[in-house]
Here is the input.
Amino acid sequence: MIDRSLFENTGTAFTLKSDSELERAYFLFKMISSQPLVRIGTAATNFALKANLPVEGLIRSTVFDHFCGGVNEEDCLSVIDNLFTEGVSSVLDYSVEGKETEAQFDNALEKILKIIYFCDEKDAMPIVVFKPTGFGRFHLYQKKTEGVDFTTDEQEEWDRVVARFDAVCKLAKQKDVEVLIDGEESWMQDAADDLVEDMMRLYNKDNTIVYNTLQTYRWDRLEYLKQLHGRAKADGFKVGMKIVRGAYMEKERNRAEENGYASPICENKKATDDNFNASMSYILDNLNDISIFIGTHNEASCYLAMELMETYNISKEDNNVWFGQLYGMSDHISFNLAASGYNVAKYIPFGPVKDVMPYLIRRAEENTSVAGQTNRELSLLKAERKRRKL
Ligand SMILES: Cc1cc2nc3c(=O)[nH]c(=O)nc-3n(C[C@H](O)[C@H](O)[C@H](O)COP(=O)(O)OP(=O)(O)OC[C@H]3O[C@@H](n4cnc5c(N)ncnc54)[C@H](O)[C@@H]3O)c2cc1C
Here is the structure.
């Protein structure tokens, strides 16, 4: 029997936070809970950064330090070591987005390779992550997804994207580090899916090194997973899958409406939840063939995963099952799962303040819009404050 009050243990959840850090987190979520404040704050911050006003210090001491590990990988070391004292591993996430030049893609590649060498030396870092569009232009993935022929130059450019994927997966295989590849917008995702599958064929022969992402807010994904599973069994490779609900819902729905095609997104939240849980059940029932990284802040899905692991006799420390949350969010899930013996990792975003702003703005907006999530953080922080006073 699993303990369904596990995530209410705020002492474990916030064990690493000093009283003043607890207060800062409370203040921050209180601000984020106000939609007008987030809107004004976002606009003012963007303006100030563009105008080179000295606001970096302010951003760092508020949102940045709460949601990010630092401006470079060395900065993150103290966070990584700290988390690991409580059994929580780290996935360093180079969160610089929207870059479009070959030099920037090569720079991102260098970063990830450096992180893999880092992982080789640190038990606290068993996994790395990258975004497909960190290694190549969005437009290129889109063209390939749409089946449009490349020009000669584009073909050469695509070959370089493939080479970057291969360099990461090859080194990860050598160093026995797992690689998560993020999921993005549906109109570029088929090209990324095919490329990740090629990597699985090459590097997942004996164990799972390469993981794709299944965005279960897409109603077609469980079928995709089953088909991929079939191909993997037939061709002798393991599937790695990070499962998430998906981060681009509004964008997906708007584009479908504007262009007059059926939305790829489930009709409502319940349908997404059902799809997430069904995909997770399917994988846990096929753990010999598919490894899973469960990326969610949803308590019910985490409890369900724990229950299914018990049903299928999967040990808590089985390396084929990982739970993951974002740094600065849902510590009550991460730390309580880790304290109970499950494999848990936090995504730790890092990068220059200016470059991680899109990531930070997404977090602020998500916490403002996702029903209940900020209120949940606030009530947990309040409960912990009260517990400490007592
Ligand atoms: C470790 C980690 C890695 C991640 N990696 C990725 C990634 O690679 N790609 C990516 O896209 N996202 C990624 N995410 C973000 C993720 O997709 C979700 O946006 C976020 O985690 C919120 O979902 P949830 O399961 O935590 O919680 P919940 O609050 O239970 O779910 C919120 C989600 O449900 C869905 N939803 C909400 N309302 C509706 C509705 N009306 N109809 C249909 N669906 C709805 C949306 O996907 C929304 O984000 C990652 C998250 C984590 C924790």
